[in-house]
Amino acid sequence: MKIPEPFIEGTDHINAIVETPKGSRNKYVYDEENDIIKLKRALPAGMVFPFDFGFIPSTIAEDGDPMDILVLTDAPTFPGCLVESKVLGIIKVEQEEDGEKVRNDRVIAVQLHSRMYSSANNIDDLPEGLVKEIVNFFASYNQVSEDVFNPLGNEGPDVAIKLIHRSIKKASESIKP
Q: Which UniProt keywords apply (predicted)?
């Protein structure tokens, strides 16, 4: 799979690579070494991803992984699907890994040309309660894995885009010549 640039040229729109589609009980991850999407684990019965979930290519977040992104799509896509997206904001999250607190924020975006969410330009434009439901999903998801999940609040697209640029810089600095 050829991984695209994070931003769509000349815009603030981003490319998102879906790992786990909306409605899936299975959690998939991109295995960079083998260039394949692989099954990581199954969620408990009755628990599914509320929207397409994946990563922003060519980024490294504070947790050392590509930056997480939840994309509001009108219908589920599939693992490995490239979704051109508009950034709405970010859910700031602190998690514990190996006894240390680490930021593991989730970018929230909407697919370009969405019929259902086309009027949203900011995380605050989403229907009342939706962001809370998304946060509750991630809290439950992490509880199943016995991981500490501490939401720190939300920010709009300007802050999210700055964090994406920071994670792009971190990724480019980690490339060894």
A: Hydrolase, Magnesium, Metal-binding
Tell me whether residue 22 is in a domain: yes
Residue 55 maps to a domain: yes
Q: Range of 136's domain?
A: 14-170
**Residue 142: partners with Cβ closer than 8 Å, 6 or more residues away:** 95, 148, 149
Tokens read off for 57: 């290519």
What's the pLDDT tens digit per position in 78-103?
A: 999 999 999 999 999 998 877 889 99
Residue 72: name the closest of 15, 110, 128 by CA: 110
End-to-end alpha-carbon separation of the chain, Å?
22
CATH, residue 153: 3.90.80.10
For tokens 């980690």, name the residue. Answer: 174
